[in-house]
Amino acid sequence: MRADGPAIVVSDIRKSYGDLRAVDGVSFTVAEGEFFGLLGPNGAGKSTTLEIIEGLRKPDSGSVRILGESPWPRNPALLPKMGVQLQASSFFERLTSKEQLQTFGSLYGVSRAAAVDMLELVGLTDKADVQENNLSGGQRQRLSIACALAHDPEIVFLDEPTAALDPQARRNLWDVLRAIQARGKTIVYTTHHLDEAEILCDRVAVVDKGRVMAMGAPAWLVRKLDAQTQVIVEHGTVTVEIARNLPGADKVIDDGVSVIIATNDAGLTIKALGELDALNKAQVRTATLEDVFLHLTGRAYRE
Amino acid sequence: MNAFTSLSVAMFKASIRDKAALFFTFMFPLMFLVVFALLSGVKLASNVEIAVVGDSRVVAALQNSEGVNIQRIKESSSAIDMLRDGKVAAIVVSQGDTIDVRYANGDRAETGPALAKISDAIASANLGAGTTPPKYAVRQKPIEETAFEPIQYLTPGILSWGVSTAAVFSSALTLVAWRRKQVLRRIQLAPIGRGSVLSSRLLLSVVIALLQAVLFVAVATLPVFGLKLSNQWWLAIPLLILGTLAFFSVGMLLGAICKTEDSVTGAANLVVLPMALLAGSFFPIDKAPDWVKLITNALPLRHMNEGMLDVLVRGKGFDALVLPGSVLIGFTLVVSAIAAVSFRWEDK
Ligand SMILES: Nc1ncnc2c1ncn2[C@@H]1O[C@H](COP(=O)(O)OP(=O)(O)OP(=O)(O)O)[C@@H](O)[C@H]1O
Ligand SMILES: [Mg+2]
């Protein structure tokens, strides 16, 4: 085996389509076993970046190393170590879940039984004999992930696995993704959901217009932002006047339902509110990756 | 199972689950076969057609008999052609006192009634002449070559057409669907040779072609239709495989060029239908103008047709495979080379 280097090293890759710089100098490193997220709005260049890393596209410049090897040109030695889920799910026509897995598995020389085991991981055992086109969107998404895992790859690339899922299905899928990570896989995934990335990822790269705007652990990015915390109390518990004079408090808004206090020192503000006995049904809203994104791009994050 | 077998199995399953495609592959050509065979067996007019060459009392008597249409022909050779093509049921050549009656030695339905009408006419002519021995001496002789029953040329023709249609459509549609559904990209990401993918798909087409042949021939040999296979029928197998290869490559080319299933279906129809008509799959084109024949000879389906006819029905040997075989191989090489150049893994 290889010495323990990083799983993936991406150095300054660029890709243009005509005048459009889809990927404009992206660099990052993913350690083995890490859960790495690429996030950004539509057209940010997430899929293109992923496809360059997977070896599906040739970058105009820059280089990629996966487990020390280059994925381009097509590198058959590397292919079995990577599992890929493409953004639009790709399936053979008119095959059942089980047959899809067996067929994809066979492309990698995996036994039929081993391939079918993946159904259990993604919770589709009861849908084994259902044809792919009769699955629900979420089930198809999970099957697509199972197909990427059929050959037990070391590194898994998932392009928006949770897109278009209802909140319940999304949370189910999170469990699947965590289970995959627990198996020691390196995961690189893209998402639109900043909240989700915050929960799942060890590290994220926020991408916009083909560039990495910020990179690091979600909590670190949020803390680095040094953003204000919002303390929200019920309307009527304190007046705007009082609230504004609380220690740490900055801006205060009373929208008729609640009083929203933006504070630079949540601890002090909450303590003072407690002394006023005004903490009934209070909520605290800290900064999120969304705020980081807003801060970085100067525009609100909208999917 | 290795990738090749497993892919073949997957594609086989997918194709038997596609009911519409199954219908167009197996039932549709079979319907054509049955309908054409029945239509050609139905005599719309109950009159028997008889060609006559020369003139005599016999011809006059024939002209007066009920239920007979006579066609006066100058040359006996062209009358024989008409007989071979099934346009007339028998020929009467009268030269002086000699009457030559020619008929097809196959078991055509109309031969019996025609011969009966002719002998009636001869009897009445002899009666009218009133001489002993009878004035007119009759020589009856079947023409040497068996004239084809319609089913004999319909079966090879419709088989070739059915095989070519299935090979073009299924391969073109698979390629387009796989590109659109990104299966091609996933295959690119798997450590599997492109040859295995291509050959497993090709195997499926060959299997389908052989199944079509078995089905169509089985139905055509039913007593109702009465196809008689030559002893060399098995020579059709290499021809079927070569034909499948040729039309598979056409499908690959269309699939490489077209982006959507709809457009590739249209394109395939545009290629296959005129080709089937011009190649004489449904009816013989011997009578077509020369310029049509010229086009026809450039069509691979035409050569497949002819080859099929030769080995399935005419009983010709291996030699009959040389021309169609080389045409089909040459065609395959050229078309698949163009297809390989036009091939795309994904839509740009
Ligand atoms: N093959 C292509 N030809 C031309 N332009 C392309 C091509 N592929 C992508 N692009 C453009 O490159 C940009 C980045 O696309 P990409 O698919 O990487 O975005 P993304 O971040 O994955 O977006 P999404 O969240 O919508 O999936 C987009 O503006 C897109 O229109
Ligand atoms: Mg994308």
Automatic annotation (TrEMBL), chain A:
Domain named ABC transporter: residues:
8-234
Fetch the PROSITE patterns from UniProt.
ABC_TRANSPORTER_1, ABC_TRANSPORTER_2
GO CC annotation terms, alphabetical? plasma membrane
| Topology of the protein relative to the lipid bilayer | Peripheral membrane protein
Give GO BP annotations, semicolon-separated: response to antibiotic
Query: Where does the record say this protein resides?
Result: Cell membrane
Q: Which CDD domains match?
A: ABC_DR_subfamily_A (cd03230)
Keywords, comma-separated and alphabetical: Antibiotic resistance, ATP-binding, Cell membrane, Membrane, Nucleotide-binding, Translocase, Transport
Under the heading InterPro entries, the entry gives: AAA+_ATPase, ABC_transporter-like_ATP-bd, ABC_transporter-like_CS, ABC_transporter_ATP-binding, P-loop_NTPase
Domain of life of the organism encoding this protein: Bacteria
- SMART domains membership: AAA
MF terms from GO for this chain are: ATP binding; ATP hydrolysis activity
Task: Give the family from UniProt.
Answer: Belongs to the ABC transporter superfamily.
Q: PANTHER family, per this entry?
A: ABC TRANSPORTER ATP-BINDING PROTEIN (PTHR42711), ABC TRANSPORTER ATP-BINDING PROTEIN NATA (PTHR42711:SF5)
Designated name of the protein? ABC-2 type transport system ATP-binding protein
Q: Which organism is it from?
A: Umezawaea tangerina
Automatic annotation (TrEMBL), chain B:
Query: Where is this protein primarily located?
Result: membrane
* Intracellular or extracellular location(s): Cell membrane; Membrane
Q: How does it sit in the membrane?
A: Multi-pass membrane protein
**What is a single Pfam family found in this protein's UniProt entry?**
ABC2_membrane_3
Q: Name one GO molecular function term.
A: ABC-type transporter activity
Q: Which domain of life is it from?
A: Bacteria
Q: Which PANTHER family match?
A: DOXORUBICIN RESISTANCE ABC TRANSPORTER PERMEASE PROTEIN DRRC-RELATED, TRANSPORT PERMEASE PROTEIN
Which GO BP terms sit in this record? Answer: response to antibiotic
Q: Which residues form the ABC transmembrane type-2 domain?
A: 116-346
Which segments cross the bilayer? 20-39, 158-178, 202-227, 233-254, 266-285, 321-343
Keywords on record: Antibiotic resistance, Cell membrane, Membrane, Transmembrane, Transmembrane helix, Transport
GO CC terms in record: ATP-binding cassette (ABC) transporter complex
Against PROSITE patterns, the record matches this protein to: ABC_TM2
Coiled-coil spans are: none
Q: What is this protein's record name?
A: Transport permease protein
What the entry lists under InterPro entries is as follows: ABC-2_transporter (IPR052902), ABC2_TM (IPR013525), ABC2_TM_bact-type (IPR047817), ABC_2_transport (IPR000412)
Q: Which family does it belong to?
A: Belongs to the ABC-2 integral membrane protein family.
